[in-house]
């Protein structure tokens, strides 16, 4: 099991563009059209499946919101931060 990060660790390790929302980290990515957002969501899904750490994703017309938390630990861990960085690499 991963260790929960404290507030300072979360703030200093949060990848560019991500924000904390309670016990989750979140970022909304913008796209030119709906299908580009769907393609991005699929790419994120493939990464998440490989790492067995799945985000909540909300696909809208030109946006995809991605949220990470570690449910088993009850908050934000290194794994969430690492996944957020991997998602940034796909954007």
Automatic annotation (TrEMBL):
It comes from Halalkalicoccus tibetensis. Its EC number is 4.2.1.96. This is 4a-hydroxytetrahydrobiopterin dehydratase. SUPFAM superfamilies: PCD-like. CDD domains: PCD_DCoH. Belongs to the pterin-4-alpha-carbinolamine dehydratase family. Keywords: Lyase. It holds the Pfam family Pterin_4a. The keyword Lyase applies. The lineage of its organism: Archaea, Methanobacteriati, Methanobacteriota, Stenosarchaea group, Halobacteria. It catalyses: (4aS,6R)-4a-hydroxy-L-erythro-5,6,7,8-tetrahydrobiopterin = (6R)-L-erythro-6,7-dihydrobiopterin + H2O. GO terms for molecular function: 4-alpha-hydroxytetrahydrobiopterin dehydratase activity. Residues 72-91 are annotated as: Disordered.
């Amino acid at each position: 099991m991963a260790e929960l990060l404290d507030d300072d660790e979360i703030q200093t390790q949060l990848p560019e563009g991500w924000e904390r929302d309670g016990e989750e980290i979140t970022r909304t990515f913008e796209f030119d059209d709906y299908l580009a957002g769907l393609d991005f969501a699929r790419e994120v899904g493939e990464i998440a499946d490989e790492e067995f750490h799945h985000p909540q994703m909300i696909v809208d017309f030109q946006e995809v919101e991605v949220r990470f938390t570690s449910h088993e630990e009850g908050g934000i861990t290194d794994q969430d931060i690492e996944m957020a960085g991997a998602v940034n690499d796909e954007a």
